[in-house]
GPW/gp25 family protein (Thioalkalicoccus limnaeus), 125 residues
Amino acid sequence: MAERLTALRYPFAVDAGGGRLTEEGDLDAYIRGLIRQVLLTAPGERINRPDFGAGVRRMVFAANDATVASLAETYVLDALTRWLSTLIGVDEVKARSEQEKLLITVRYRVLRRGETRVLNEEVTF
């Protein structure tokens, strides 16, 4: 059973019935959302945290090959370790190029529970 958590849901939404911000109650969904935010946010995109994010989308103008996949692995590992180390332990980051896509797999441990999870993210070039 998923652990109950109270945090703002991302993307932000307003509950139509109560007019309040919706909350994310599932810890696994919350952490997956945070990981996706780190992966897809480019450094410089957030005003108050200019170095936040892995910036894998900025690789869209690079050649989609093994070199870019290796660079993406490094960026993702560094960013997740820096920004989410209080919530997760990153066990492995794998990236591979496939035609116009960069496929990123993150294997991580939820520190609160010690459970291993896997997130697969596809970035289209």
Q: What stands out?
A: The CA atoms of residues 90 and 108 lie 4 Å apart. The beta strands are 4-8, 23-26, 88-98, 101-110, 115-124. The chain has a mean pLDDT of 86.
